[in-house]
Design goal:
alpha/beta; elongated
């Protein structure tokens, strides 16, 4: 089993049980306790669980990591997802890009494609705006909503909602704090509502997330799977997770 697959399995058990023990994890994953301790140390450093004596516990669902923390988590998987998402982007489109590290990776991929022209990007993410402005790519117009700034550098709340409600995009790339059988979650209620308004403004909604988001919850479910047209996720999802997606979403891309 690859390290990322172990991390995914560990997080699934943490979210199912709340607290897990090193010995139990080692037996269920058929690896040494030393390997599990190393995995828990790495996951604790990423901020997705908390190490305790002999095991680990769940991080509170209300915790929202800073943007720099998010960019460091599963960077390779996010890059693969972003490159797969690029296949849905075409010249002469209006493109919505929500906040989050995976969505920021998509912005980076778009700026690296000189053949893409006549694009209007609508975003509520300061980081996405910075990507396009630092590149100064000709043929790309960027519109930024105002609003209340979150720890992950997204603008949310009534001002953002009002701006997005008047706009329309061909496609929207949307991330999530957490994913489950019932849909997409966020710990920020204002961000959840802004995400819903953003989704209503798009003709096609594409959810982008890596497999470690599975079983992570938040205060608000802002989307059910029926609200999503396409999912792009990492190749470390389990067979059961893939089944949930294919049973509920029209198109699933594993990057």
């Amino acid at each position: 089993m690859l390290a990322q697959q172990r991390h995914n399995a560990i997080m699934a058990q943490v979210h199912a049980k709340g607290t897990v023990q090193v010995q139990d994890l080692a037996e269920s994953l058929d690896v040494s306790t030393m390997t599990i301790r190393r995995d828990l140390a790495e996951l604790d450093e990423l901020g997705v669980l908390t190490r305790v004596h002999g095991g680990a516990t769940l991080v509170t669902s209300a915790h929202e990591p800073q943007f720099a923390e998010k960019m460091a988590i599963n960077a390779d998987a996010k890059t693969a997802i972003a490159r797969a998402a690029l296949g849905l982007v075409h010249s002469s489109q209006s493109i919505g890009i929500a906040g989050g590290s995976t969505c920021t990776k998509i912005a980076q991929e778009i700026t690296a494609q000189p053949e893409l022209t006549d694009i209007t990007v609508v975003t509520n993410s300061l980081q996405v705006l910075n990507i396009f402005h630092s590149d100064l790519k000709p043929g790309v117009k960027t519109l930024l909503t105002g609003g209340e700034r979150t720890p992950s550098d997204a603008f949310v709340g009534p001002i953002a909602d009002a701006a997005l409600s008047t706009l329309s995009t061909d496609i929207l790339f949307m991330g999530a704090h957490g994913i489950g059988e019932k849909g997409l979650f966020t710990p920020n209620l204002h961000e959840g509502h802004t995400n819903q308004v953003f989704m209503k403004s798009a003709r096609e909604v594409v959810a982008v997330f890596d497999a470690t988001k599975w079983s992570v919850t938040g205060l608000m479910r802002f989307a059910q799977w029926r609200d999503i047209d396409t999912v792009i996720t990492s190749n470390t999802i389990t067979d059961e997770q893939h089944r949930v997606l294919t049973d509920n979403v029209n198109k699933v891309v594993v990057a």
